[in-house]
Specification:
The chain has 9 helices and 18 strands. By secondary structure, the protein is of the alpha/beta class. It folds into 2 domains: 195 residues, Quinone Oxidoreductase, Chain A, domain 1 (Alpha-Beta Complex), CATH 3.90.180.10; 126 residues, NAD(P)-binding Rossmann-like Domain (Rossmann fold). The longest helix is centred in the last third of the chain and has 13 residues. It is globular, with a radius of gyration of 19 Å. The two termini are 25 Å apart. The protein binds zinc ion (ZN) (2 copies). One zinc ion binds next to loops.
Length: 346
């Protein structure tokens, strides 16, 4: 099979012919149909995340079809379409696992980081961390749900019932979250890189009532600020935007250092917290929400071999919504035409 492989933290992947992996006990062998590209992939490629299992097949937003069921992978059948997220394995025995905080497992392994992921024609995945996908979404549309959507959803849940939500960094996650927040009758305020009119327009199109530069002030105080951009400078800025008792949630796996700031910004029972990974419960809950919310997932799709182009376009901020790698012929949405596909890379 073909795979796009990271050999060293040099910012790109290389095409490689590899034997098809064999599922061991508890695993499924999947034919990958689509795999979205995440900012975390750039952080891994750039060496910001320092423990990749090299050589590594990246990709942790996988949509695949079960082609073989390993021993004791109960409940799965050949032909089923499943999604595989970032959290790929947990021990089930450590303190966090015992508390039900499997997202914080001390020895967790992550898809496309410590476990080979979906930038390949086939992959294996722990059956416990595979999820049936709603038929309402085609393969390409479903892929970004597995990280951008899912971890974004966990961040939104941490905001409680906050009616006024700020989203900082308007990439794949924010474009999904805006739609979910609107469906829950929340007001959305979108912050982008200074002067990114196109992205601000995109945010308003999706339901944000205000969109502006990240150094500008929202028209009203926010109840919660969700930061998706990996920029520590945004933390004190977001604290200035939230009301007393409001929360700033850092939703990315990597962020540049947070600058020092006056205690006054935190005063008034404001809080800053992070979101780490996901739980299986998040996945089941979120996929049900995604199925009943008529999400319009914007994607730019690339053939698998063009993974480096997708990564470069993501890095340069040229992607509206999510970049998705496609191998073979992906299935269309259940209702053809209901979810306009945004386009293929030129
Ligand atoms: Zn991700
Ligand atoms: Zn554990």
């Amino acid at each position: 099979m073909r795979a796009m492989v990271m050999r060293a933290p040099r910012g790109r992947v290389e095409v490689e012919e590899r034997p098809r992996p064999t599922p061991v006990e508890g695993q499924l062998l999947l034919r990958v149909r689509a795999c979205a590209v995440c900012r975390t992939d750039l952080h891994i490629l750039d060496g910001d995340l320092t423990e990749p299992a090299l050589p590594l097949v990246l990709g942790h937003e996988i949509v695949g079809e079960v082609v073989e069921v390993g021993a004791n992978a109960r409940g799965w059948e050949v032909g089923t379409r499943v999604g595989v997220p970032w959290l790929g394995w947990t021990c089930g025995e450590c303190d966090p696992c015992g508390r039900g905080d499997e997202n914080l497992c001390d020895t967790a392994r992550f898809t496309g980081y410590q476990l080979d992921g979906g930038f390949a024609e086939f992959t294996v995945a722990d059956a416990r961390y595979c999820f049936a996908l709603p038929p309402e979404l085609g393969d390409i549309e479903a892929a970004p749900l597995l990280c951008a959507g899912l971890i974004g959803y966990r961040a939104l849940r941490m905001a409680g019932d906050a009616p006024r939500v700020g989203l900082y960094g308007f990439g794949a996650a924010a474009h999904i979250l805006t739609q979910i927040a609107r469906a829950e009758d929340r007001r959305v305020f979108a912050f982008t890189r200074a002067g990114d009119q196109d992205r601000q327009h995109f945010a308003r199109e999706l339901g944000a009532e205000w969109a502006g530069d990240s150094d500008s002030d929202p028209p009203v105080p926010l109840d919660a600020a969700l930061i998706f951009a990996p920029v520590g400078d945004l933390v004190p800025r977001a604290l200035q935007h939230v009301r007393k008792g409001g929360v700033v949630i850092c939703a990315g796996i990597h962020m540049s250092d947070i600058p020092t700031f006056p205690y006054e910004l935190l005063w008034g029972e404001r809080s800053v917290r992070s979101v780490a990974n996901l739980t299986r419960r998040d996945a089941v809950e979120f996929l049900a929400v995604a199925a009943r919310t008529r999400l319009r997932i914007h994607t730019t799709s690339y053939p698998l071999e063009r993974a480096n182009d997708a990564l470069a376009d993501l890095r340069a901020g040229r992607i509206r919504g999510a970049a998705v790698l496609v191998s073979g012929t992906p299935t269309e949405p259940f209702e053809p035409g209901a979810f306009p596909r945004s386009g293929r890379a030129p």
